[in-house]
Amino acid sequence: MTKMTSMISKLSQGAAVILALAMTQAPDRAAAQSLFEPVITVNDAPITRFEIEQRARLLQLLRAPGNPEKLAREQLIDDRLKIQAARQNGIEVSDEEIQDGMERFASQGNLSGEELVNRFEGAGVYEQTFRAFIASGVSWAELTRAKFGPRVSVTEEDVQRAREAIGRGGGVQVLMSEIIIPTTPQTQESVEDTARRISEIESEGAFSAQARRYSATRTADRGGRLPWTPISDLPPALRGIVLGLAPGDVTEPLPLEGAIALFQLRDIRETDVPDPTYAAIEYAAYYIDGGRSEAALTQARRIDANTDTCDDLYGVAQGQPETVLQRGTKAPEEIPQDIAYELSKLDPGEVSYALTRANGETLVLLMLCGRSETIEEDAPVTAETQGEAAAEGEAGDEEALSLSQTEQLSRQISDQRLNSYAEGYLAQLRADARIVEK
99 with 175, same domain? Predict the structure, then answer.
């Protein structure tokens, strides 16, 4: 029995009993009406309580980390935005495409699509819930490939740099400069024009001059220059982009929530000490009204001067609404890209206030609480050990192996770059959307 099969079987037994008991009771018309009442609207598109309950139950079966109901609400909002954007761009997925997506998803647990649907239904998740889950993913994949695919190219030099990076016994550090330009709905177009112009810069001096002029980060005074940074500290989506740069290259403008970012690679080096990998990152976010107004920035500086740990922020937030301060622990891949990038520059107890929310009306003060390293129990998998495993029974077929590695690295770099564009695009859709939660 596979891991997924075992997981779903155990959950389905208890859920089936609950459903059977529920069906023996007389229906409550008022409760049914409440169940199908919209509790969220996304650009006037409704999300019902029933959909949230169904998605939460699906996420529980899939053992998704975090609060299932909260995650369900977030995912369904994103799904509405993805479907709306796809339709606006003329993309409508067919039943055959959705079915193919269901089959691919099920195959991860060594099941057919029909088998997985039956197990889900046995645990109280309707087939339509699963289909909707797959449909949004398929639509979004088609849209992002069509919209950003032409911008993504991978050269032989990109692949070679990535091969060298993963094949080293030590770590890889990068020396970068940054420019992060805040946006609002009113300034979005002009900022995009400025960012495109900056992306064509080829000298470090010119990039630094633009950082001093436009960047909202605390590095602006030193021309956006950052210290040597382990590549593992960067958000996963940004690593592939950076590894694909040569010294002096500037990234394409990367859309974030409420900002556009550009990075210039100044240098890259190998170290003798392997880079750590992190299982979880704990951070706190304190929200300040006023966006990037001088009053809000002054308050952020004052908090920075008077706090040393995340626990200190509870004193700052005392007497204010609970929503003013949020603190939690997440896996690196679960952290929004803009937040993950800011956290990558911080040591525990340090803060950043480069980001905004609510269309620039709220300043976000981030503090890194700590990072939990992954404990490696097995020998690390490298390009060399992968090659040894793949060559078993095929000794001497070095050319085929080399091609396979090249294709895999090229696809990985391309996917990472495409994912970075997609995350930024989704963040912009969220920022522009009319989302009403009851």
Answer: no
Q: In what order do the strands lie in the sheet with 325-330?
A: 325-330, 278-289, 362-373, 351-357
* Beta carbons of 264 and 177 less than 8 angstroms apart: yes
Give the single-character DSSP code of 27. P
Question: What pLDDT digit, counting tens, does each position of 319-343 carry?
Answer: 999 889 999 888 887 888 889 999 9
Question: Phi then psi for 287, rounded to 5 degrees?
Answer: -100, 130
Residue 385 and residue 115 in contact, taking contact as beta carbons nearer than 8 Å:
no
CA distance 343 to 438: 32
Residue pLDDT, tens place only, 26-67: 455 555 557 788 999 999 999 999 999 999 999 888 867 667
Burial (CB count within 10 angstroms: exposed 0-12, middle 13-18, buried 19+), residue 323:
exposed
**First-to-final CA distance of the chain:** 42
The label of the residue with tokens 């999300």 reads: 47
Residue 66's domain spans which residues?
A: 3-149
Q: Are residues 234 and 168 in the same domain?
A: yes
In sequence order, what are the residues at sequence separation of 6 or more whose Cβ sits closer than 8 angstroms to the Cβ of residue 425?
Answer: 85, 144, 147, 148, 255
If asked whether residues 294 and 354 sit together in one domain, one would say: yes
* Ranges of H-type helices in 89-176: 95-107, 113-122, 127-148, 156-167
Contact assessment for residue 129 and residue 116, using Cβ atoms and an 8 Å cutoff: no
Q: Are residues 158 and 270 in the same domain?
A: yes
Assign 311 a pLDDT band (cuts: 50, 70, 90): very high
CA 97 to chain centre: 25
Length of the chain: 438
- How far is Cα 263 from Cα 253, in angstroms, rounded to an integer? 8
Nearest to 132 by CA among 88, 72, 90: 72
Same domain, 194 and 285: no
CA nearest to 207, candidates 192, 188, 194, 189: 194
Q: Which residues of 64-94 are buried (b: 16+ CB within 10 A; e: fewer)?
A: beeebeebbbebbbbbbbbbbbbeeeebebe
Strand 229-230, strand 325-330: pairing? unpaired
CA–CA distance from 66 to each of 59, 71, 198 (Å)? 10, 7, 39
**CA torsion sign, 65 to 68 to 70 to 74?**
positive
